[in-house]
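Reopening this ticket.

The earlier resolution said the output was attached, but the attachment link was broken on my side. Pasting everything inline this time so it's all in one place.
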Amino acid sequence: MPNQSDGSNQPIDTLRLTDEQWHELSQRLDRHDPYVTGQRRHQRVAYRKLAQIAVAVKQQDGQWAKYIVRSRDISPGGIGFIHGSYIHNNSECRIILKNTHGQITRIDGIVKRCELLEGTAHHVGVEFNEEINIASFVADSDNE
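Inline output:
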């Protein structure tokens, strides 16, 4: 995974898709989602209204790299997002989300899955360290 070489504290977007390209990829994923199984503990809810979210990932050297990712879904136990490069399983993550009142919340978790979709796009599944109340982050109107 590329590190931030410019010393900037700004998150980087490794996916680099236009909104149109993201919409097309998202539709393809919706038609054939390989991650839908009956073995999940929590029901996932689409989480695309706030399509771009900030994620910090602890690198093997102990440094934190910050990225902008495209969210796919969320549940009380985790979040799925699309990222432009591979993230090692068991990597620590800090996910920054806005709640329904606009307040920023940091949620810590661990990468449980990272699989190549196409090109450089990877589907990343993160398990939260503690369950969340998704109603705090997803209003009913966001799931239409």
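Reporter confirms the inline version is readable. The mean pLDDT is 81. The chain has one domain: 19-35+45-143.
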